């Protein structure tokens, strides 16, 4: 199938071509007869939302992909719904070129085995413990013999109390210039068995980060570790959060039943990126703090699985003071995680007569 592109930037077109698709670049909308049985990809800069109905009527026998460029969390849900009603495929803002390629594969039902090593942690709200849980998993994965890099990618909170010689904002010029090397990752802060990149200390630069920079950092980190753990934080309005949602091989949401009202819009937002409840696993933090809604009821409502429940402890400095039983439970989950990433052999399943 040919893809007729109107308004897409050349870098993205090159990425689509490298993925094996045939792209025909257009300076004006093509004739409907040209695109019959093919795909027409247009951007919101060239075709405003008000012209979508007319576009659909003009190309009744073509698949249409609408790339919406206006940034914002709240502004595009209604437009996505409008596209759905017209039978038009939708790409949300902040989507990287690789995310667009994956969407094209999804539309054209192309299956390709691609096993990543990025484990993304997302919080349902500030203070839920996303950073602490990400550090806990990084520590236990490292204890299982894997080379681990933990990236602090919550652009609103560095996740580290002290200013360090290396951090996301200090590394950013090398990300922007695509100059990262192995030495940059060797110089990260050494924690309990893993290397840690503290996040962004320059709060005024949050909205300056670009999706391509974060994607580049993740790709380079992936080549320097067996497992990359990333703390993407709890605030969706950042380039890192969007890229994390798109690129993570495993998506873990740290939450609590009292955040039920936060989970609803979070799951709705994920749906616009073609992610659904089964694409997430939840970690219930402070599970022994009673609430009106139980974790079980939370699962029944939203449809995601609970990976782990962690109890509440009195305030601590850096790492969760877990007991042997809890650590063993976490290590079991870590082993399952490593198996899913192709980094550990499957455990022998004991049958009923064994």
What does this entry look like structurally?
This protein has helices spanning 10-18, 32-35, 52-58, 77-86, 97-107, 130-143, 168-176, 182-186, 211-222, 239-247, 260-271, 295-302, 324-340; strands at 2-6, 22-26, 39-43, 63-67, 89-91, 118-123, 148-152, 189-190, 195-197, 227-231, 250-255, 280-284, 305-309. By secondary structure, the chain is an alpha/beta fold. The protein has 2 domains: 2-107, Cobalamin-binding domain (Rossmann fold, 3-Layer(aba) Sandwich); 118-340, 3-Layer(aba) Sandwich (Rossmann fold). The strands form 2 sheets. It has an 8-stranded mixed sheet, with helices on both faces. It is globular, with a radius of gyration of 22 Å.
In short:
By secondary structure, the protein is of the alpha/beta class.
Descriptive keywords:
5-stranded parallel β-sheet; 13 helices; 17% strand; 8-stranded mixed β-sheet; 36% helix; alpha/beta; Rossmann fold; 354 residues; 13 strands; 2 domains
Number of strands: 13
CATH architecture of the largest domain: 3-Layer(aba) Sandwich
Global shape: globular
CATH superfamily annotation of the largest domain: P-loop containing nucleotide triphosphate hydrolases
What is the topological layout?
Blueprint: E1 2-6, H1 10-18, E2 22-26, H2 32-35, E3 39-43, H3 52-58, E4 63-67, H4 77-86, E5 89-91, H5 97-107, E6 118-123, H6 130-143, E7 148-152, H7 168-176, H8 182-186, E8 189-190, E9 195-197, H9 211-222, E10 227-231, H10 239-247, E11 250-255, H11 260-271, E12 280-284, H12 295-302, E13 305-309, H13 324-340
Parallel strand pairs: 1-2, 1-3, 3-4, 4-5, 6-10, 6-11, 7-9, 7-10, 11-12, 12-13
Antiparallel strand pairs: 8-9
Helix pairs in contact: 1-5
């Amino acid at each position: 199938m040919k893809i007729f592109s109107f308004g897409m930037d050349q870098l993205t077109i090159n990425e689509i071509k490298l993925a094996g698709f045939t792209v025909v670049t257009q300076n004006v909308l093509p004739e409907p007869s040209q695109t019959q049985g093919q795909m027409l990809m247009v951007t919101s800069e060239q075709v405003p939302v008000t012209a979508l109905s007319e576009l659909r009527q003009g190309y009744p026998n073509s698949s249409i992909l609408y790339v919406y460029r206006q940034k914002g969390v709240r502004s595009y849900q209604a437009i996505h719904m409008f596209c759905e009603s017209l039978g038009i495929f939708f790409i949300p803002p902040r989507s990287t070129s690789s995310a667009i390629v994956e969407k094209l594969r999804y539309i054209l039902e192309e299956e390709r085995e691609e096993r990543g090593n990025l484990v993304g942690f997302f919080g349902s709200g500030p203070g839920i413990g996303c950073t602490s849980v990400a550090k806990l998993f990084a520590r236990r994965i490292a204890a299982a013999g894997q080379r681990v890099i933990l990236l602090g990618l919550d652009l609103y909170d560095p996740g580290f109390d002290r200013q360090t010689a290396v951090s996301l904002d200090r590394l950013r010029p090398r990300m922007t210039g695509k100059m990262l090397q192995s030495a940059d990752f060797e110089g990260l802060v050494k924690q309990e068995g893993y290397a840690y990149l503290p996040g962004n200390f320059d709060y005024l630069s949050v909205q300056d980060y670009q999706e391509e920079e974060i994607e580049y950092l993740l790709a380079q980190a992936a080549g320097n570790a067996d497992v990359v753990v990333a703390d993407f934080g709890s605030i969706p309005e950042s380039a890192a959060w969007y890229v994390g949602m798109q690129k993570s091989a495993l998506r873990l949401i740290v939450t609590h039943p009292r955040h039920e009202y936060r989970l609803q819009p979070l799951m709705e937002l994920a749906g616009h990126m073609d992610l659904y409840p089964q694409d997430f696993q939840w970690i219930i933090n402070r599970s022994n703090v009673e609430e009106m809604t139980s974790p079980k009821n939370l699962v029944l409502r939203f449809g995601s699985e609970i990976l782990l429940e962690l109890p509440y402890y009195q305030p601590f400095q850096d790492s969760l003071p877990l007991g042997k039983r809890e650590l063993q439970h976490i290590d079991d989950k870590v082993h399952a995680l490593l198996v899913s990433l192709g980094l550990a052999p499957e455990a022998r399943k004991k049958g009923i007569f064994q």
